[in-house]
Write a structure and sequence with these properties.
Length: 420
């Protein structure tokens, strides 16, 4: 059995690059970490299966032709999911431009809770490396991000800061309870839990912001007592490098971006006293990379229409789950996970996903593809957007990668679609 060391995990935005992954008769097994996401995703390696058209097995060439016919005949196609490495996203966006399609990522809801604030107010954000090496006070706002990024504390908070003399670090949970695994990872650090109402963490951030100039005048908020708000405001004022971290996908409700806006305002105002930065955590299925590619290719972020003229960005109208009602054909790409949403009936769906994907409704065309970091090499972006990491292929199941399939579909488009 082959053992692969220093394997990069492409499945969440932390980009852990220290995994040991063994090849077993049944596939792959992660040996070096208990991260449930990594263990589950690397273990999901069923054998290749043939593409299908209308539920019937066909050759890859026939499936590509059928996909090109379905997409080329559409007047308002949607190219979404975009769960692919950088090359796969580039190929998807190139095909979308040929089709005049709307483009979006499956997980863009959380992304847009952050981007909406970045567009409105700007922000001061930091990197994972700065968190590890400089932060002396980490405030975790809302539900524990470890539910989405299991090794956050082990990799980026528990290690001794490299650029502090003397090194010190404390962690405060604001309106959220740390998971048991988080408590274990932070066993050697001082941890304070202010378990207020997670749905009102924005109120707590606003109360902290108001208390910064004079903590003695703090008021309670979100179930947190005034004296606790005052104490945390004082700690923020005295920190050398404070970081406020959150996972926007854990914020619920129709105006979750306003919660992010209040956290960003807190970070802004702490900078009147000392150094402070925000750390928005995201990045599953390379959503950060997909947004980076769209921005550098077209000058606008995701949730954009490439339907002729200048690319048009509209974060409300072009959200994939809203636009799927309007679209008359869907190309859905999900190479990191065997999951496909259901779409309104009566429109052809072309699905690119790993083998073993279960469908509530059989798509018009299903093309099994490899997963970056398992079947082939590929680049994915880290949550903090500053690093594109290269994952390597570990096994060969004989599956094509997303970029190759989409390039073949583009080449097979009918002439009139190719001329869009
Ligand atoms: S924390 Fe994220 S990147 Fe690290 S091993 Fe788990 S899923 Fe992979």
């Amino acid at each position: 059995m082959a053992t692969n060391d220093d394997v990069l995990c492409p499945f969440c935005g932390l980009g852990c690059d220290d995994l040991t992954v063994e090849e077993e008769s049944g596939g792959l097994a992660v040996r070096s970490t208990d991260c449930p996401i990594a263990r589950d995703r690397f273990a999901h390696t069923p054998p290749a299966e043939p593409p299908r058209v209308a539920g019937a097995p066909v050759s890859l060439e026939d499936a590509v032709r059928a996909a090109a016919m379905a997409l080329g005949a559409a007047g308002a196609p949607l190219v979404a999911g975009l769960g692919a490495d950088v090359d796969g996203v580039r190929a998807a966006l190139a095909l979308a431009q040929r089709l005049g399609a709307v483009v979006d990522h499956a997980l863009s809801d959380g992304l847009y809770r952050n981007l909406a604030v970045l567009q409105r107010t700007g922000w001061i954000a930091t990197t994972l490396a700065e968190l590890r090496n400089r932060c002396d006070l980490l405030v975790v706002a809302g539900p524990d991000p470890a539910a989405f990024h299991p090794r956050l504390y082990e990799r980026w908070v528990a290690p001794t800061p490299a650029f502090q003399n003397p090194p010190s670090r404390e962690v405060v949970f604001l309106c959220g309870e740390p998971l048991d695994s988080t408590r274990a990872a932070l066993a050697n650090l001082p941890v304070t839990v202010l378990p207020g109402d997670p749905a009102r963490v924005g109120d707590a951030a606003a109360a902290l912001t108001a208390a910064l100039p004079d903590p003695s005048r703090a008021v309670g908020a979100a179930g947190i007592a005034a004296e606790d708000i005052a104490t945390l405001a004082e700690r923020l004022r005295k920190a050398r490098y404070a970081v406020v971290a959150w996972a926007a996908s854990a914020f619920h409700g129709p105006h979750a971006d306003l919660t992010v806006e209040r956290l960003v305002r807190l970070v802004h105002d702490v900078n009147r006293q000392t150094r402070c930065a925000g750390l928005p955590l995201a990045g599953h299925d390379n959503v950060v990379g997909a947004n980076q590619v769209c921005t550098w290719q077209f000058g606008v972020p995701l949730r954009a229409s490439l339907g002729g003229g200048a690319p048009l960005h509209d974060p409300y109208r072009f959200a994939w789950d809203r636009y799927s009602d309007t679209a008359d054909a869907v190309l859905w790409i999900s190479s990191f996970r065997p999951e496909i949403p259901t779409f309104p009936t009566g429109k052809p769906v072309v699905a690119l996903a790993p083998p073993g994907t279960a469908f509530a409704d059989e798509p018009a065309v299903f093309i099994p593809v490899g997963t970056p970091g398992i079947d082939h090499a590929g680049h994915v972006f880290r949550s903090d957007t500053v690093v594109a990491l290269r994952a390597r292929g570990l096994i060969d199941r004989g599956l094509p990668d997303v970029a190759a399939v989409l390039t073949a579909i583009a080449a097979a488009l009918p002439q009139e679609a190719a001329a869009c």
